[in-house]
Design goal:
Elements (H helix, E strand, L loop, with lengths): L3 E4 L2 H6 L8 H5 L4 E5 L1 H11 L6 H16 L5 E4 L2 E5 L18 H12 L1
Parallel strand pairs: 1-2, 2-4
Antiparallel strand pairs: 3-4
Helix pairs in contact: 3-4
Length: about 120
């Protein structure tokens, strides 16, 4: 069972070292962690893989391929020792206004996923 959960923003996947190369337990100070992917993150990655940007398009496609490979295995999908991957596959149904969030804002949709998860 994970001790810590991290909701990963699209930027982490596209602009930094590969997500599966990061020592998440050390960063989060736990032996077992779970990386949670909100629906908006998957949507943004899919948008980027179809974009004209020659740097982001192949990176997004590569990340999506890695994620699909991980999800095709028996759950929980293990990214590396001590790190599992969780797909939040349903769009959050929280009251955005009550949480002072805007559904049209992608970052707010990520926050709504966090709020609903816990």
């Amino acid at each position: 069972m994970p001790e810590r959960f991290a909701f990963i923003d699209t930027t982490i996947f596209l602009h930094y070292q590969p997500f599966d190369a990061i020592d998440w337990p050390a960063i989060l100070g736990a032996k077992r962690v779970a990386l949670v992917l909100a629906p908006i993150t998957i949507s943004e990655l899919n948008d980027k893989k179809d974009e004209q940007n020659p740097k982001l398009r192949p990176r997004a496609a590569s990340v999506i391929k890695k994620l699909e490979t991980l999800w095709s295995k028996e759950p929980p999908a293990e990214v590396r020792p001590g790190v599992e991957l969780i797909l939040q596959d349903v769009e959050p149904s929280i009251d955005y206004g009550a949480h002072e969030l805007d559904y049209r804002c992608q970052d707010d949709r990520l926050l709504s996923g966090t709020a609903e998860y816990f």
